[in-house]
Specification:
Structural class: alpha+beta
Radius of gyration: 24 Å
Order of helices and strands: HHEEEEEEEEEEEEHH
Distance between the termini: 38 Å
Strand content: 35-45%
Shape: elongated
Number of strands: 12
Amino acid sequence: MQDWNYLHTNDFEITLEIGCFKFPKHEHLPEFWDENRDALMAFMEKVHTGIKGMVTDKEGRPLANATIEVGAILLVHFISTFRTYMVNHFSTVRCRTHLCCSYSRQSSKSITLEILLQVEGIRHVVKSTAYGDYFRLLAPGHYTVTVSHPGHAPSTATDVHVPEGVLADQLTGALSAKILNFTLEEDMSKEWSIAKDFGIEENLNTR
């Protein structure tokens, strides 16, 4: 049930076993509560880790059942003992994922590489509700977020930073995930195709 709940309802469910007996005596329950209360409250606050927001059209109307997809951006630092001449040949290196590199010489025999690695498509998508709102639990880090909806052009937010800890709403002071709203424009690709591309459907399918 836990895997099904997460994949199909975005309900991140866990089971905690805090004792050796499946049915402890009732007089032990207050002790269990006192020992685990603070940890349980801290865990409950983690529901506010990640992003949330609204998906609307340009008229401000909520879009139900929009698809929210997330990709991770990993910032990796490498200290290498390659000889300096390797820098001149670094442009020949290729990677199957998006790769951006910069380097600085630390000595005559070593360089530092800063690599921005974008991992497309974490294999878990969420849907907006009937009221257009969504939420997505995420660990601290940097992400790309893409929202799509039938009849609308997709919208992507790049380098979305999810900070450490739980944020507080600036207006109310209540705990809150990072707010990320999306406004989707009407998909005009077919009209563009008719006007600019002779209405060739195959070209639309590759966009």
